[in-house]
C-alpha cells in the first residue's frame, strides 16, 4: 500500500532559536589601548577555536588551528584578528542551524490513529458510565453460577441460556427461573431495548454531550499542535479519497443512524470533517461525522466550552 504525504505550512520563526552552542558575545574593547584589544581578540579566538574544535578557517590556511597558540596569533594585525573572529562567528551560526535541523526532524502524523485514540477513550467512558439494567439486577443466583459472563452478556443471550437452564431444572428453582424468563420475555418482545438518557439526570446528559464534543474537537487541536511544533507531515494511505461522494456521505449517515452524533437531531444533517487540512481536501469515513447544522457551527469554533454550551442546548431542545 502506497502512502500520500501532505506537508502543512508552519511558522518558521519559532525555529530560529539556537540552542546547540553557547552564545558567545564579543567583548567590549577599549579602542585606545591597542595592545589590550589584541590580547582580548586573541583570547576570544583561542576560546572559540577550542570550543568549536576548528581545524582550519578560510583565509587563514597557513595557521594550524589544531595547535593554535598566542604566539601564532600575535603576528596578525588587529584587523586580521577581527576578520578571523568574524569567520568564527559565522561558523557558530552555521553549526547552530544544522543542529536545529537535526533536532526538528519532521514527525509523521497519521490522523486516523489520533481519531481512533479519542474514540477509544469515548467508548471506555461510555461503558464505565453505562447504568446497570434493572433486569440484570434480578438474575437468579443459580443462573449467575452457570453463566459466568452474566454482567456483560446481552439480554437476548441471557434469555436463551436461562430457558435452557429452566428446562433442566425442577421444583422451586425451576419456578424462580421461569419467572425471570417471563420478565425477560416481556422486555424483549414488548419493549424496545434502547437506552435513552433522561433529562432528569442532567449530569449524564452533560457528560454525554461533552464527551462527544471533545471527541470531535480535540483530535483537530492535537494535530494542529503537532504540525506547528514538529513540522509534521500527515500520512494518508490509499483508503483516503479526494472526493466527497454521495456514496461516502450516505455511508457515514447510515453509520450514525441518520442522527446528529452530539444532540441526536435527525434534521438539517451535514457532514463534518474531524481533522481538516488547508493544503488539500481529503476524506475518509472515520474522519467524517454526522452533525446537525447547529452542532457543526458550534464545533467549528474549536472551543470545547463554547461548543458544549450550544450543543447541550441542542440536545435538550431535540429530546
Q: What does this 3D model show about the protein?
A:
The protein is built from 12 helices and 5 strands. The chain has a 3-stranded mixed beta sheet with strand order 1-3-2, covered by helices on one side. The protein has a two-stranded antiparallel sheet with strand order 4-5. The chain is mainly alpha-helical. Helix 4 packs antiparallel against helix 9, helix 7 (155-167) packs antiparallel against helix 8 and helix 11 (293-299) packs antiparallel against helix 12 (304-318). It folds into 3 domains: 15-103; 108-129 and 199-318, no CATH class; 134-190. The protein is 54% helix and 7% strand.
User: How many domain units?
Assistant: 3
Main beta sheet: strand number and arrangement? 3 strands, mixed
What percent strand? 5-15%
Radius of gyration, whole Å = 35 Å
Helical content band: 40-55%
Secondary-structure class: mainly alpha
Order of helices and strands: EHHHEHHHHHHEHEEHH
The termini sit apart by: 45 Å
Number of strands: 5
Please report the number of helical segments. Answer: 12
Overall geometry comes to elongated
- Summarize model confidence as the mean pLDDT: 78
Strand order of the largest sheet: 1-3-2
Low-confidence stretches: 6-32, 191-195
Amino acid at each position: 500500500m502506497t502512502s500520500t504525504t501532505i506537508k502543512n505550512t508552519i511558522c518558521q520563526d519559532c525555529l530560529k532559536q539556537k540552542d546547540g552552542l553557547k552564545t558567545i558575545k564579543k567583548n567590549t574593547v577599549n579602542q585606545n589601548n591597542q595592545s589590550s584589544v589584541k590580547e582580548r581578540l586573541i583570547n576570544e579566538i583561542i576560546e572559540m577555536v577550542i570550543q568549536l574544535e576548528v581545524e582550519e578557517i578560510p583565509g587563514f590556511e597557513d595557521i594550524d588551528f589544531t595547535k593554535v597558540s598566542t604566539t601564532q596569533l600575535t603576528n596578525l594585525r588587529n584587523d586580521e584578528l577581527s576578520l578571523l573572529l568574524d569567520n568564527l562567528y559565522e561558523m557558530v551560526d552555521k553549526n547552530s542551524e544544522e543542529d536545529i535541523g537535526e533536532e526538528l526532524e519532521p514527525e509523521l502524523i497519521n490522523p486516523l490513529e489520533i481519531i481512533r485514540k479519542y474514540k477509544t477513550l469515548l467508548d471506555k467512558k461510555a461503558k464505565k458510565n453505562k447504568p446497570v439494567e434493572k433486569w440484570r439486577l434480578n438474575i437468579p443466583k443459580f443462573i449467575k453460577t452457570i453463566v459466568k459472563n452474566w454482567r456483560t452478556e446481552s439480554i437476548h443471550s441471557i434469555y436463551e441460556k436461562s430457558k435452557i437452564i429452566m428446562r433442566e431444572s425442577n421444583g422451586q428453582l425451576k419456578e424462580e427461573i421461569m419467572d425471570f424468563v417471563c420478565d425477560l420475555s416481556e422486555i424483549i418482545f414488548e419493549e424496545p431495548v434502547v437506552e435513552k438518557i433522561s433529562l432528569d439526570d442532567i449530569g449524564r446528559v452533560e457528560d454525554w454531550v461533552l464527551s462527544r464534543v471533545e471527541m470531535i474537537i480535540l483530535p483537530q487541536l492535537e494535530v494542529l499542535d503537532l504540525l506547528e511544533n514538529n513540522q509534521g507531515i500527515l500520512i494518508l494511505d490509499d483508503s483516503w479519497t479526494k472526493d466527497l461522494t454521495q456514496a461516502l456521505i450516505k455511508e457515514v449517515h447510515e453509520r450514525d443512524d441518520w442522527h446528529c452524533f452530539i444532540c441526536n437531531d435527525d434534521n438539517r444533517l451535514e457532514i463534518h470533517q474531524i481533522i481538516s487540512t488547508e493544503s488539500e481536501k481529503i476524506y475518509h469515513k472515520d474522519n467524517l461525522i454526522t452533525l446537525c447544522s447547529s452542532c457543526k457551527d458550534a464545533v467549528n469554533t474549536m472551543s470545547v466550552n463554547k461548543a458544549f454550551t450550544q450543543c447541550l442546548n441542542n440536545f435538550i431542545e431535540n429530546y
